[in-house]
Amino acid sequence: MAIRVGAHPANGFDRVALDFRGMPGYRVRYENTVTRDGSGQRVRLPGNAYLQLVFNPAQAHNEQGESTLTSPPVNPVRVGYDELVSYVLNGDYEGYVSLALGLAERNGFVVRQFQRGNGLHTVYVDIARG
Question: Which residues form the AMIN-like domain (predicted)?
Fold first, then answer.
């Protein structure tokens, strides 16, 4: 699994893309708060609005429990784009991977998916800039 973020000011959106070895189901919606899966502990994520992404079945760890992400964002990562302020991996628990986005404001978004030539599946979220 991999997580990539990018700003696309000329096109009016910021993007978060996730790569998976198989296509998981997913749910994306705004939440009032961000919590960690399993513990329910609140995450202080920079931003004024929170978009929660949940993927299933998915995992961001191997059979030994080690993260498969190069730099797992278990603590909030500030990116400081116009709309995407920060993100955090707030869950990798029992077949669910959760990624929360801290946004400047509650704007429209679109979710798309595709299979890449190398067999990986990508799900990406474009968040409109206000």
Answer: 2-128
